[in-house]
Amino acid sequence: MNWLQKNRVLVPIDFSEESFAALSPAREFVKDASHLYVLHVLSHLHPAEPGVMWNTLDDRDRQQHVKEALDKRLQASEYANVHIGVAIGDPSSEIIDYAKEIDADLIVIPSHGRTGLSRFFLGSVAERVIRYAHCPVVVLKKGN
Amino acid sequence: MKHYKLLNWLRKYPWLCLILLAIPSTAYAADGKPTGILGAIDAIFSYLVAALSQVLFFSIGGMPFIVLWLIIGAVFFTIRMGFINFRGFGHAISVVRGHYDNPTEEGEVTHFQALSAALSATVGLGNIAGVAIAIQLGGPGAMFWMTVAGLLGMSSKFTECTLGQKYRIVKPDGSVSGGAMHYLSRGLGELGLRPLGKVLAPLFAIFCVGGSFGGGNMFQANQSYAAVSGVIPFLQGRNWLYGIVMAVLVALVIIGGIKRIGSVTEKLVPAMCLIYILAALFIIFTNIPLIPGAVATIFREAFFPQAFAGGFIGVLVQGFRRASFSNEAGVGSAAIAHSAARTEEPVREGIVALLEPFIDTVIICNMTALVMVITGVYTDTKADGAQLTNEAFASAIGWFPVVLAIAIFLFAFSTMISWSYYGERCWEYLFGDRTTLVYKALFVFFVFVGAVVNLGAVLEFSDMMILSMAFPNILGCFLLSNKVAADLQDYMHRLQTGKMPVFK
Question: What angle do CA B349, B475, B350 make, to 5 degrees?
Fold first, then answer.
């Protein structure tokens, strides 16, 4: 057995192509795809969003929709049996919390290389995950 | 993991502490001019307003460029869409009544729910204070042009909301993201005008964020303070207290996520609308003999203004300006809310949207105007904005200012909440959804600012930002109008040949 072999590897997915591409390097750390955990973090909806105002779209529905969307997207691929999680809140804190919850051995996360104002305001998710996660973090650079 | 957030915030934004410390020390100097941080804010706004007005109110034949732009847009869309504002009216009502609601289609809410969500942003102080301002600055004739602007604006609203639906993005969680920034970038991209879209979409988003701080926020806070302090003497001279209370309430909803306050307000607003209309009708009916005279005055002053210095063009400009401020037709903001409707027919939601300027301007604004002209208070008072409307109603129904103050408070509050949603969507488009807390904090801060600064600066800034949105929006709608017209023709054909499934 490879000493690099991990039991639970977390891959945060934000539906960008980079984040889906992170599944393949993450796969190399585990025996099979069932050891992979993907997590999508939703932001809170604004209280004046029509669906919130009229109570036609609640957080449970949203989580269910994302789960279905991820299922559909991953079904046909070699990642059909990954574990899917959906959280709501600030991406970096939710990723850190979820990693602890599932007792992840490793987090594989792409770096979007955010620039400008949003970086100034909040820094990158990857940066904060590295700083506060309880386990090792692999950050994938663009173009790899 | 939760506790590190606050520390992080304070570490990242030490200036937040400074603002918090500076607010209580703000004071008014002897001449009534604000000093300290408010003075600085006032100065910044004056500077912004002066710079922007060079461009926006650049005069063409005595008419400010942006007003001419709105008029050309509304007339063009009315003709290009074959007078959809009149021929689509009946269909709009049957759609709103739910005849065509298909629960399996993508989207968040029904047509009726989307319309009322959009209306809660448009029905606000524009209908009460805005009309008073129009009549003060342009005379009673301004109301005629407001009505014309409302009727023509129905076509602009149709065009922009159809586009909003057509180019919306349905996210994986089922929520919808749409609006002018999306149709400007994606729609113009389809036409091979990608670089133009790349400029217009962020431009729109920047103006919309500004508009959400101005007309959608400070103007509302400012004018609702004027009305509320009229009936609660304790608040007089204590605008800072009102500002803090309002800011805390807004913060509870948009930052604290206390949905209940928001949803209660949204449910109360239609009731308040009804009370307002009933009161206006009561005054109108008890003064029936005065109606022909009032209508004659409005018509005469529209074409041959005597009482006001601006002349014919001046009256027309005031009418169109205040109308677009009130119903937002051509501004592009409502497309954000209408995109959320559950439908796969963009044209259908566009047709629903054309009811908005009708309800807002042709009905509600006219009520205010008639009361104002019948009671005649606008000629002999120094009151301005909401206070003028208040006096007009009070002269006929002595106790009404109390009800009106409650209505104004609720209108202002719901408009602020809705506009913070528009602004947040645009902020998200510019900076991503992870920095929206920064936007919300700024928004809450401006609620306070709006309550304490004087009307002049607030009104001008509000006007400018909201009118500026019309520039990228109408330009985009012009370019995309062929697509909308083709979709409309196809839709009407299917409707007339009975190929539209009816669900109710």
Answer: 5
Interface list for chain B against chain A, based on CB atoms closer than 8 Å? 1-2, 4-5, 12, 108-109, 113-114, 117, 120-121, 172-176, 253-254, 257-259, 262-263, 266, 337, 340-341, 417-418, 420-421, 424-425, 430-436, 438
As to burial, measured by CB atoms within 10 angstroms (0-12 exposed, 13-18 middle, 19+ buried), residue B298 is buried
Size of interface A-B (CB pairs under 8 A): 108
Interface contact flag, A52 B259, Cβ < 8 Å: yes
Q: Answer whether B263 sits within 8 Å of A55, measured CB to CB.
A: yes
This prediction has a pTM of 0.87
- pLDDT, residue B448, reads 92
Residue A66 has its nearest CB partner, among B173, B337, B430, at B173
ipTM of the complex: 0.84
Residue B377 near residue B203 (C-beta atoms within 8 A): no
3-state SS track over chain A: CCCCCECCEEEECCCCHHHHHCHHHHHCCECCHHHEEEEEEECCCCCCCHHHHCCCCCHHHHHHHHHHHHHHHHHCCCCCCCEEEEEECCHHHHHHHHHHHCCCCEEEEECCCCCHHHHHHHCCHHHHHHHHCCCCEEEECCCC
pLDDT tens digit string along A72-91?
A: 888 877 787 889 999 998 88
Sole residue written with tokens 């913060």: B251
